[in-house]
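Re: [help] complex structure
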Amino acid sequence: MSFTYQYARPALTVDCVIFGFDAGEHELRVLLIQRALPPFEGKWALPGGFVKVGENTDVAARRELEEETGLKQVYLEQFKTFSEPKRDPREHVVSVAYFALVPFLSHPPKADTDAKDAAWFSVEDVPSLAFDHKVILDTALQRLRLKMQHEPVGFELLPPQFTLTQLQQVYEAVLGQTLDKRNFRKKILSMDLLIDTGEVQQDVAHRAAALWKFDARRYEKLKKGGFHFAL
Amino acid sequence: MSFTYQYARPALTVDCVIFGFDAGEHELRVLLIQRALPPFEGKWALPGGFVKVGENTDVAARRELEEETGLKQVYLEQFKTFSEPKRDPREHVVSVAYFALVPFLSHPPKADTDAKDAAWFSVEDVPSLAFDHKVILDTALQRLRLKMQHEPVGFELLPPQFTLTQLQQVYEAVLGQTLDKRNFRKKILSMDLLIDTGEVQQDVAHRAAALWKFDARRYEKLKKGGFHFAL
DNA sequence: TCAAAAGTGTTACAGATACACCCATGT
DNA sequence: ACATGGGTGTATCTGTAACACTTTTGA
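Output below.
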Protein backbone atom coordinates (compact mmCIF):
# COMPACT_ATOMS: atom_id res chain seq x y z
CA MET A 1 0.00 0.00 0.00
CA SER A 2 1.31 3.43 -0.90
CA PHE A 3 0.89 6.25 1.57
CA THR A 4 -0.15 9.77 0.80
CA TYR A 5 1.48 11.22 3.82
CA GLN A 6 4.12 9.53 5.86
CA TYR A 7 4.09 11.82 8.92
CA ALA A 8 2.27 11.38 12.20
CA ARG A 9 -1.47 11.90 11.91
CA PRO A 10 -4.11 12.87 14.42
CA ALA A 11 -6.43 10.07 15.51
CA LEU A 12 -10.03 10.30 14.31
CA THR A 13 -13.17 9.68 16.35
CA VAL A 14 -16.90 10.34 16.22
CA ASP A 15 -18.99 11.63 19.11
CA CYS A 16 -22.78 11.51 19.30
CA VAL A 17 -25.08 13.95 21.03
CA ILE A 18 -28.19 11.84 21.46
CA PHE A 19 -31.30 13.89 22.19
CA GLY A 20 -34.56 12.59 23.58
CA PHE A 21 -37.74 14.24 24.76
CA ASP A 22 -39.20 13.40 28.15
CA ALA A 23 -42.92 13.85 27.64
CA GLY A 24 -43.63 13.57 31.36
CA GLU A 25 -41.32 16.40 32.38
CA HIS A 26 -41.68 18.29 29.08
CA GLU A 27 -37.90 18.33 28.93
CA LEU A 28 -35.23 17.89 26.31
CA ARG A 29 -32.69 15.32 27.44
CA VAL A 30 -29.32 14.06 26.34
CA LEU A 31 -27.92 10.54 26.72
CA LEU A 32 -24.57 10.41 28.47
CA ILE A 33 -22.31 7.54 29.46
CA GLN A 34 -20.06 7.27 32.45
CA ARG A 35 -16.55 6.40 31.32
CA ALA A 36 -15.19 3.04 32.46
CA LEU A 37 -11.62 3.79 31.35
CA PRO A 38 -9.06 6.58 31.60
CA PRO A 39 -8.73 9.34 30.75
CA PHE A 40 -11.60 10.91 32.67
CA GLU A 41 -12.51 7.54 34.20
CA GLY A 42 -15.82 7.83 36.01
CA LYS A 43 -16.73 11.12 34.31
CA TRP A 44 -19.81 11.56 32.19
CA ALA A 45 -19.23 11.92 28.46
CA LEU A 46 -20.84 11.73 25.06
CA PRO A 47 -20.83 8.28 23.53
CA GLY A 48 -18.27 7.96 20.75
CA GLY A 49 -15.44 5.92 19.36
CA PHE A 50 -12.68 5.61 16.83
CA VAL A 51 -13.24 5.69 13.10
CA LYS A 52 -11.81 2.64 11.36
CA VAL A 53 -9.91 2.84 8.11
CA GLY A 54 -12.32 2.02 5.31
CA GLU A 55 -15.38 3.22 7.20
CA ASN A 56 -17.00 6.62 6.73
CA THR A 57 -17.92 8.70 9.76
CA ASP A 58 -21.68 8.29 9.25
CA VAL A 59 -21.25 4.54 9.59
CA ALA A 60 -19.02 4.96 12.62
CA ALA A 61 -21.54 7.28 14.27
CA ARG A 62 -24.41 4.93 13.56
CA ARG A 63 -22.43 2.07 15.07
CA GLU A 64 -21.89 4.03 18.30
CA LEU A 65 -25.50 5.08 18.35
CA GLU A 66 -26.73 1.54 17.97
CA GLU A 67 -24.41 0.34 20.72
CA GLU A 68 -25.97 2.82 23.14
CA THR A 69 -29.59 2.79 22.13
CA GLY A 70 -30.05 -0.48 20.25
CA LEU A 71 -31.74 1.46 17.47
CA LYS A 72 -30.82 1.63 13.80
CA GLN A 73 -33.40 3.90 12.20
CA VAL A 74 -32.88 7.22 13.87
CA TYR A 75 -32.31 10.75 12.71
CA LEU A 76 -28.58 11.43 12.64
CA GLU A 77 -26.75 14.48 11.35
CA GLN A 78 -23.11 15.47 11.27
CA PHE A 79 -22.76 19.01 12.56
CA LYS A 80 -19.15 19.91 13.28
CA THR A 81 -15.61 18.61 13.57
CA PHE A 82 -13.64 19.44 16.70
CA SER A 83 -9.89 19.45 16.29
CA GLU A 84 -8.16 21.36 19.08
CA PRO A 85 -4.86 19.53 19.68
CA LYS A 86 -5.32 19.61 23.47
CA ARG A 87 -8.92 18.45 23.57
CA ASP A 88 -7.70 14.93 24.46
CA PRO A 89 -4.91 14.87 27.05
CA ARG A 90 -3.24 11.81 25.50
CA GLU A 91 -2.61 12.99 21.98
CA HIS A 92 -4.18 14.91 19.10
CA VAL A 93 -7.60 13.39 18.50
CA VAL A 94 -9.95 14.97 15.98
CA SER A 95 -13.63 14.25 16.50
CA VAL A 96 -16.46 14.48 14.00
CA ALA A 97 -19.58 15.29 16.02
CA TYR A 98 -23.12 14.16 15.23
CA PHE A 99 -26.45 14.76 16.82
CA ALA A 100 -29.22 12.18 16.91
CA LEU A 101 -32.93 12.53 17.64
CA VAL A 102 -34.51 9.47 19.17
CA PRO A 103 -37.96 8.65 20.56
CA PHE A 104 -37.17 8.81 24.25
CA LEU A 105 -39.58 6.24 25.64
CA SER A 106 -38.32 3.35 23.58
CA HIS A 107 -34.78 3.80 24.88
CA PRO A 108 -34.17 2.87 28.46
CA PRO A 109 -30.43 3.50 28.68
CA LYS A 110 -28.19 0.57 29.47
CA ALA A 111 -24.47 0.68 29.97
CA ASP A 112 -22.28 -0.48 27.12
CA THR A 113 -19.00 -2.35 27.47
CA ASP A 114 -17.00 0.92 27.51
CA ALA A 115 -19.25 2.50 30.07
CA LYS A 116 -20.00 2.03 33.74
CA ASP A 117 -23.39 3.54 33.31
CA ALA A 118 -25.64 5.41 30.91
CA ALA A 119 -28.37 7.91 31.70
CA TRP A 120 -30.55 10.67 30.32
CA PHE A 121 -29.89 14.19 31.63
CA SER A 122 -31.93 17.31 31.17
CA VAL A 123 -30.01 19.62 28.84
CA GLU A 124 -30.58 22.34 31.42
CA ASP A 125 -28.72 20.38 34.04
CA VAL A 126 -25.81 18.33 32.75
CA PRO A 127 -22.95 17.24 35.00
CA SER A 128 -19.34 18.21 34.31
CA LEU A 129 -18.25 16.39 31.16
CA ALA A 130 -15.04 14.77 29.92
CA PHE A 131 -12.85 16.28 27.17
CA ASP A 132 -14.48 19.26 25.38
CA HIS A 133 -17.85 17.52 25.43
CA LYS A 134 -19.61 20.45 27.04
CA VAL A 135 -18.66 22.62 24.07
CA ILE A 136 -19.79 19.90 21.67
CA LEU A 137 -23.09 19.58 23.48
CA ASP A 138 -23.70 23.33 23.49
CA THR A 139 -22.92 23.53 19.79
CA ALA A 140 -25.29 20.63 19.12
CA LEU A 141 -28.08 22.36 21.02
CA GLN A 142 -27.61 25.54 19.05
CA ARG A 143 -27.72 23.59 15.80
CA LEU A 144 -30.77 21.64 16.88
CA ARG A 145 -32.63 24.87 17.64
CA LEU A 146 -31.78 26.26 14.22
CA LYS A 147 -32.60 22.97 12.52
CA MET A 148 -36.00 22.63 14.14
CA GLN A 149 -37.02 26.04 12.89
CA HIS A 150 -36.10 25.30 9.29
CA GLU A 151 -36.76 21.59 8.80
CA PRO A 152 -39.56 19.39 10.06
CA VAL A 153 -37.56 17.25 12.49
CA GLY A 154 -39.57 17.71 15.67
CA PHE A 155 -41.37 14.39 15.11
CA GLU A 156 -38.09 12.51 15.31
CA LEU A 157 -38.19 13.01 19.07
CA LEU A 158 -41.64 11.40 19.28
CA PRO A 159 -43.06 7.96 18.55
CA PRO A 160 -44.26 7.46 14.94
CA GLN A 161 -47.76 8.53 15.99
CA PHE A 162 -48.17 11.56 18.20
CA THR A 163 -50.64 14.21 19.28
CA LEU A 164 -50.40 17.84 18.28
CA THR A 165 -49.96 18.80 21.92
CA GLN A 166 -46.95 16.49 22.20
CA LEU A 167 -45.45 18.03 19.10
CA GLN A 168 -46.00 21.51 20.48
CA GLN A 169 -44.33 20.50 23.74
CA VAL A 170 -41.30 19.29 21.80
CA TYR A 171 -40.97 22.66 20.12
CA GLU A 172 -41.48 24.49 23.37
CA ALA A 173 -38.83 22.41 25.14
CA VAL A 174 -36.26 22.76 22.38
CA LEU A 175 -36.83 26.41 21.63
CA GLY A 176 -37.27 27.33 25.27
CA GLN A 177 -40.45 29.34 24.79
CA THR A 178 -44.15 28.73 25.03
CA LEU A 179 -46.25 28.79 21.87
CA ASP A 180 -49.89 29.67 21.32
CA LYS A 181 -51.92 26.48 20.89
CA ARG A 182 -54.28 27.68 18.19
CA ASN A 183 -51.58 29.38 16.15
CA PHE A 184 -49.28 26.39 16.41
CA ARG A 185 -51.93 23.99 15.19
CA LYS A 186 -53.03 26.30 12.41
CA LYS A 187 -49.51 26.69 11.11
CA ILE A 188 -48.49 23.04 11.35
CA LEU A 189 -51.70 21.75 9.80
CA SER A 190 -51.70 24.35 7.04
CA MET A 191 -48.39 22.93 5.81
CA ASP A 192 -50.15 19.69 5.03
CA LEU A 193 -47.28 17.58 6.32
CA LEU A 194 -49.23 15.61 8.90
CA ILE A 195 -51.67 12.78 8.30
CA ASP A 196 -54.51 12.11 10.69
CA THR A 197 -54.19 8.39 11.42
CA GLY A 198 -57.82 8.19 12.58
CA GLU A 199 -56.59 6.65 15.81
CA VAL A 200 -56.64 8.33 19.20
CA GLN A 201 -54.63 8.34 22.40
CA GLN A 202 -55.28 5.42 24.75
CA ASP A 203 -55.58 5.30 28.52
CA VAL A 204 -55.91 8.97 29.28
CA ALA A 205 -58.28 10.30 31.92
CA HIS A 206 -59.83 12.89 29.64
CA ARG A 207 -60.82 13.37 26.05
CA ALA A 208 -58.41 11.37 23.87
CA ALA A 209 -56.41 13.37 21.37
CA ALA A 210 -56.10 12.45 17.70
CA LEU A 211 -52.88 10.73 16.62
CA TRP A 212 -50.99 12.11 13.64
CA LYS A 213 -48.01 10.96 11.64
CA PHE A 214 -45.48 12.82 9.54
CA ASP A 215 -45.88 12.49 5.77
CA ALA A 216 -42.26 12.20 4.63
CA ARG A 217 -43.11 11.57 0.97
CA ARG A 218 -45.26 14.67 0.84
CA TYR A 219 -42.53 16.75 2.44
CA GLU A 220 -40.03 15.61 -0.20
CA LYS A 221 -42.50 16.52 -2.92
CA LEU A 222 -43.19 19.97 -1.46
CA LYS A 223 -39.50 20.67 -1.03
CA LYS A 224 -38.87 20.00 -4.69
CA GLY A 225 -41.59 22.52 -5.45
CA GLY A 226 -39.67 25.20 -3.55
CA PHE A 227 -41.53 24.86 -0.25
CA HIS A 228 -39.68 26.03 2.86
CA PHE A 229 -40.62 24.72 6.27
CA ALA A 230 -40.52 27.36 8.97
CA LEU A 231 -41.15 27.11 12.70
CA MET B 1 4.28 9.17 23.86
CA SER B 2 1.35 6.94 24.67
CA PHE B 3 -1.13 6.19 21.92
CA THR B 4 -4.85 6.13 22.23
CA TYR B 5 -5.34 3.84 19.35
CA GLN B 6 -2.69 1.67 17.83
CA TYR B 7 -4.45 0.71 14.60
CA ALA B 8 -4.17 2.29 11.18
CA ARG B 9 -5.84 5.68 10.94
CA PRO B 10 -7.27 7.64 8.06
CA ALA B 11 -5.20 10.63 6.94
CA LEU B 12 -6.68 14.05 7.65
CA THR B 13 -6.81 17.03 5.29
CA VAL B 14 -8.61 20.34 4.88
CA ASP B 15 -10.10 21.62 1.62
CA CYS B 16 -11.14 25.21 0.97
CA VAL B 17 -13.93 26.42 -1.27
CA ILE B 18 -12.86 30.01 -1.90
CA PHE B 19 -15.67 32.20 -3.22
CA GLY B 20 -15.27 35.55 -4.91
CA PHE B 21 -17.68 37.89 -6.64
CA ASP B 22 -16.91 39.21 -10.10
CA ALA B 23 -18.58 42.62 -10.13
CA GLY B 24 -18.06 43.02 -13.88
CA GLU B 25 -19.86 39.82 -14.84
CA HIS B 26 -22.17 39.86 -11.81
CA GLU B 27 -21.05 36.32 -11.16
CA LEU B 28 -20.12 34.20 -8.18
CA ARG B 29 -16.76 32.54 -8.72
CA VAL B 30 -14.66 29.88 -7.08
CA LEU B 31 -10.87 29.68 -6.94
CA LEU B 32 -9.46 26.38 -8.23
CA ILE B 33 -5.94 25.10 -8.64
CA GLN B 34 -4.61 22.79 -11.28
CA ARG B 35 -2.84 19.87 -9.64
CA ALA B 36 0.88 19.55 -10.28
CA LEU B 37 1.15 16.05 -8.80
CA PRO B 38 -0.65 12.71 -9.00
CA PRO B 39 -3.24 11.57 -8.36
CA PHE B 40 -5.40 13.60 -10.75
CA GLU B 41 -2.29 15.39 -12.08
CA GLY B 42 -3.37 18.27 -14.32
CA LYS B 43 -6.95 18.23 -13.06
CA TRP B 44 -8.59 21.18 -11.40
CA ALA B 45 -9.23 20.87 -7.68
CA LEU B 46 -10.01 22.77 -4.49
CA PRO B 47 -6.94 24.02 -2.66
CA GLY B 48 -6.21 21.98 0.43
CA GLY B 49 -3.58 20.10 2.37
CA PHE B 50 -2.77 17.83 5.25
CA VAL B 51 -3.49 18.67 8.87
CA LYS B 52 -0.42 18.47 11.02
CA VAL B 53 -0.41 16.92 14.48
CA GLY B 54 -0.74 19.73 17.00
CA GLU B 55 -2.60 22.05 14.63
CA ASN B 56 -6.35 22.52 14.58
CA THR B 57 -8.21 22.43 11.27
CA ASP B 58 -9.06 26.16 11.35
CA VAL B 59 -5.36 26.94 11.41
CA ALA B 60 -4.66 24.42 8.65
CA ALA B 61 -7.41 25.89 6.48
CA ARG B 62 -6.18 29.42 7.04
CA ARG B 63 -2.69 28.35 6.06
CA GLU B 64 -3.95 26.89 2.77
CA LEU B 65 -6.05 29.95 2.14
CA GLU B 66 -3.15 32.29 2.68
CA GLU B 67 -0.94 30.24 0.37
CA GLU B 68 -3.45 30.67 -2.44
CA THR B 69 -4.68 34.21 -1.90
CA GLY B 70 -1.99 35.87 0.18
CA LEU B 71 -4.70 37.08 2.54
CA LYS B 72 -5.06 36.52 6.26
CA GLN B 73 -8.19 38.36 7.30
CA VAL B 74 -10.95 36.63 5.40
CA TYR B 75 -14.24 35.06 6.32
CA LEU B 76 -13.73 31.33 6.80
CA GLU B 77 -16.19 28.74 8.03
CA GLN B 78 -16.01 25.00 8.49
CA PHE B 79 -19.07 23.39 6.92
CA LYS B 80 -18.71 19.64 6.59
CA THR B 81 -16.33 16.70 6.89
CA PHE B 82 -16.09 14.27 3.99
CA SER B 83 -15.00 10.78 4.86
CA GLU B 84 -15.90 8.26 2.16
CA PRO B 85 -13.07 5.71 2.16
CA LYS B 86 -12.80 5.76 -1.64
CA ARG B 87 -12.79 9.51 -2.13
CA ASP B 88 -9.01 9.42 -2.51
CA PRO B 89 -7.75 6.55 -4.72
CA ARG B 90 -4.56 6.13 -2.68
CA GLU B 91 -5.92 5.48 0.77
CA HIS B 92 -8.57 6.61 3.24
CA VAL B 93 -8.30 10.38 3.54
CA VAL B 94 -10.84 12.32 5.58
CA SER B 95 -11.24 15.96 4.65
CA VAL B 96 -12.66 18.78 6.74
CA ALA B 97 -14.13 21.28 4.27
CA TYR B 98 -14.26 25.06 4.70
CA PHE B 99 -15.66 27.85 2.63
CA ALA B 100 -14.09 31.29 2.42
CA LEU B 101 -15.49 34.60 1.19
CA VAL B 102 -12.90 36.95 -0.25
CA PRO B 103 -13.05 40.32 -2.00
CA PHE B 104 -12.46 39.19 -5.55
CA LEU B 105 -10.62 42.17 -7.02
CA SER B 106 -7.77 42.12 -4.56
CA HIS B 107 -6.89 38.54 -5.42
CA PRO B 108 -5.39 37.89 -8.81
CA PRO B 109 -4.79 34.15 -8.58
CA LYS B 110 -1.22 32.92 -8.78
CA ALA B 111 -0.11 29.32 -8.82
CA ASP B 112 1.30 27.91 -5.63
CA THR B 113 4.13 25.38 -5.35
CA ASP B 114 1.69 22.45 -5.42
CA ALA B 115 -0.18 23.80 -8.41
CA LYS B 116 0.51 24.29 -12.08
CA ASP B 117 -2.01 27.05 -12.23
CA ALA B 118 -4.79 28.79 -10.32
CA ALA B 119 -7.88 30.47 -11.69
CA TRP B 120 -11.34 31.77 -10.86
CA PHE B 121 -14.28 29.88 -12.39
CA SER B 122 -17.91 30.84 -12.48
CA VAL B 123 -19.79 28.50 -10.14
CA GLU B 124 -22.20 27.92 -13.01
CA ASP B 125 -19.45 26.55 -15.18
CA VAL B 126 -16.77 24.59 -13.34
CA PRO B 127 -14.56 22.04 -15.08
CA SER B 128 -14.43 18.40 -14.04
CA LEU B 129 -12.81 18.26 -10.61
CA ALA B 130 -10.44 15.86 -8.82
CA PHE B 131 -11.54 13.59 -5.96
CA ASP B 132 -15.06 14.32 -4.69
CA HIS B 133 -14.47 18.03 -4.99
CA LYS B 134 -17.57 18.60 -7.09
CA VAL B 135 -19.69 17.28 -4.25
CA ILE B 136 -17.80 19.44 -1.77
CA LEU B 137 -18.28 22.50 -3.96
CA ASP B 138 -22.01 21.85 -4.39
CA THR B 139 -22.43 21.41 -0.65
CA ALA B 140 -20.53 24.64 -0.03
CA LEU B 141 -22.77 26.52 -2.42
CA GLN B 142 -25.87 25.22 -0.70
CA ARG B 143 -24.49 26.28 2.67
CA LEU B 144 -23.47 29.67 1.38
CA ARG B 145 -27.00 30.29 0.09
CA LEU B 146 -28.48 29.37 3.45
CA LYS B 147 -25.86 31.39 5.31
CA MET B 148 -26.42 34.53 3.30
CA GLN B 149 -30.10 34.48 4.10
CA HIS B 150 -29.57 34.21 7.83
CA GLU B 151 -26.37 36.10 8.55
CA PRO B 152 -25.01 39.34 7.15
CA VAL B 153 -22.05 37.92 5.23
CA GLY B 154 -22.70 39.36 1.77
CA PHE B 155 -20.23 42.20 2.38
CA GLU B 156 -17.39 39.72 2.81
CA LEU B 157 -17.40 39.27 -0.97
CA LEU B 158 -16.96 43.03 -1.49
CA PRO B 159 -14.29 45.58 -0.66
CA PRO B 160 -14.66 47.26 2.77
CA GLN B 161 -16.66 50.07 1.15
CA PHE B 162 -19.35 49.23 -1.35
CA THR B 163 -22.49 50.55 -2.97
CA LEU B 164 -25.96 49.22 -2.28
CA THR B 165 -26.23 48.13 -5.90
CA GLN B 166 -23.07 46.04 -5.56
CA LEU B 167 -24.45 44.45 -2.44
CA GLN B 168 -27.71 43.67 -4.19
CA GLN B 169 -25.80 42.11 -7.07
CA VAL B 170 -23.94 39.86 -4.66
CA TYR B 171 -27.22 38.60 -3.26
CA GLU B 172 -28.68 38.15 -6.72
CA ALA B 173 -25.64 36.19 -7.91
CA VAL B 174 -25.52 33.93 -4.87
CA LEU B 175 -29.24 33.31 -4.55
CA GLY B 176 -29.74 33.06 -8.29
CA GLN B 177 -32.71 35.42 -8.43
CA THR B 178 -33.29 39.07 -9.11
CA LEU B 179 -34.44 41.31 -6.28
CA ASP B 180 -36.52 44.47 -6.29
CA LYS B 181 -34.24 47.48 -5.85
CA ARG B 182 -36.47 49.55 -3.61
CA ASN B 183 -37.48 46.67 -1.40
CA PHE B 184 -33.89 45.49 -1.07
CA ARG B 185 -32.64 48.92 -0.02
CA LYS B 186 -35.53 49.45 2.36
CA LYS B 187 -34.92 46.13 4.09
CA ILE B 188 -31.13 46.37 4.32
CA LEU B 189 -31.15 49.96 5.53
CA SER B 190 -33.94 49.38 8.02
CA MET B 191 -31.70 46.86 9.80
CA ASP B 192 -29.32 49.66 10.64
CA LEU B 193 -26.25 47.55 9.94
CA LEU B 194 -24.69 49.79 7.31
CA ILE B 195 -22.91 53.07 7.82
CA ASP B 196 -22.88 55.73 5.13
CA THR B 197 -19.19 56.63 4.78
CA GLY B 198 -20.03 59.96 3.17
CA GLU B 199 -17.78 59.02 0.28
CA VAL B 200 -18.95 58.17 -3.21
CA GLN B 201 -17.91 55.97 -6.11
CA GLN B 202 -15.06 57.35 -8.23
CA ASP B 203 -14.52 57.27 -11.98
CA VAL B 204 -17.97 56.24 -13.07
CA ALA B 205 -19.61 57.71 -16.16
CA HIS B 206 -22.85 58.53 -14.39
CA ARG B 207 -24.12 59.66 -11.01
CA ALA B 208 -21.77 58.32 -8.34
CA ALA B 209 -23.33 56.03 -5.75
CA ALA B 210 -22.83 56.42 -2.02
CA LEU B 211 -20.31 54.08 -0.36
CA TRP B 212 -21.36 52.15 2.70
CA LYS B 213 -19.59 49.92 5.19
CA PHE B 214 -20.79 47.15 7.45
CA ASP B 215 -21.10 47.97 11.14
CA ALA B 216 -19.81 44.77 12.76
CA ARG B 217 -19.96 46.14 16.33
CA ARG B 218 -23.55 47.16 15.89
CA TYR B 219 -24.43 43.74 14.50
CA GLU B 220 -22.93 42.03 17.54
CA LYS B 221 -24.91 44.30 19.80
CA LEU B 222 -28.18 43.69 17.96
CA LYS B 223 -27.60 39.92 17.96
CA LYS B 224 -27.27 39.92 21.73
CA GLY B 225 -30.60 41.72 21.88
CA GLY B 226 -32.27 38.85 20.02
CA PHE B 227 -32.10 40.38 16.55
CA HIS B 228 -32.23 37.95 13.62
CA PHE B 229 -30.84 38.95 10.27
CA ALA B 230 -32.94 37.70 7.36
CA LEU B 231 -32.43 37.91 3.61
C1' DT C 1 -28.81 66.72 -24.52
C1' DC C 2 -28.25 62.14 -23.99
C1' DA C 3 -27.09 57.90 -21.65
C1' DA C 4 -26.62 55.42 -17.49
C1' DA C 5 -27.36 54.30 -13.12
C1' DA C 6 -28.87 56.38 -8.39
C1' DG C 7 -32.30 57.20 -5.56
C1' DT C 8 -37.03 57.39 -3.67
C1' DG C 9 -43.03 56.17 -1.59
C1' DT C 10 -47.44 54.17 -1.63
C1' DT C 11 -50.86 50.69 -1.98
C1' DA C 12 -52.50 46.00 -1.65
C1' DC C 13 -52.15 41.59 0.27
C1' DA C 14 -50.77 37.79 3.18
C1' DG C 15 -49.23 35.88 7.11
C1' DA C 16 -48.50 36.47 12.12
C1' DT C 17 -50.31 37.53 16.45
C1' DA C 18 -53.44 37.97 20.17
C1' DC C 19 -57.10 36.21 22.42
C1' DA C 20 -61.50 32.82 25.27
C1' DC C 21 -64.76 29.50 25.13
C1' DC C 22 -67.19 25.01 24.42
C1' DC C 23 -66.50 19.89 23.95
C1' DA C 24 -65.46 15.09 24.92
C1' DT C 25 -64.06 11.73 28.10
C1' DG C 26 -62.94 9.22 32.36
C1' DT C 27 -63.44 9.17 37.30
C1' DA D 1 -70.89 16.58 38.35
C1' DC D 2 -66.46 17.66 37.94
C1' DA D 3 -61.77 17.79 36.41
C1' DT D 4 -58.72 17.53 32.59
C1' DG D 5 -56.97 18.48 28.48
C1' DG D 6 -58.84 18.64 23.29
C1' DG D 7 -60.27 21.34 19.92
C1' DT D 8 -61.82 25.60 17.38
C1' DG D 9 -62.49 31.21 14.82
C1' DT D 10 -61.91 36.07 14.30
C1' DA D 11 -60.09 40.69 14.34
C1' DT D 12 -55.99 43.30 14.16
C1' DC D 13 -51.53 44.27 13.04
C1' DT D 14 -47.20 44.01 10.77
C1' DG D 15 -44.23 43.09 7.25
C1' DT D 16 -43.74 41.73 2.32
C1' DA D 17 -44.51 42.37 -2.54
C1' DA D 18 -45.56 44.92 -6.45
C1' DC D 19 -44.81 48.78 -8.98
C1' DA D 20 -42.51 53.81 -12.15
C1' DC D 21 -40.64 58.03 -12.22
C1' DT D 22 -37.28 61.87 -11.12
C1' DT D 23 -32.43 63.09 -10.16
C1' DT D 24 -27.56 63.35 -10.77
C1' DT D 25 -23.50 63.08 -13.29
C1' DG D 26 -20.15 62.54 -17.07
C1' DA D 27 -19.47 62.19 -21.85
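Chain B has five helices and nine strands.
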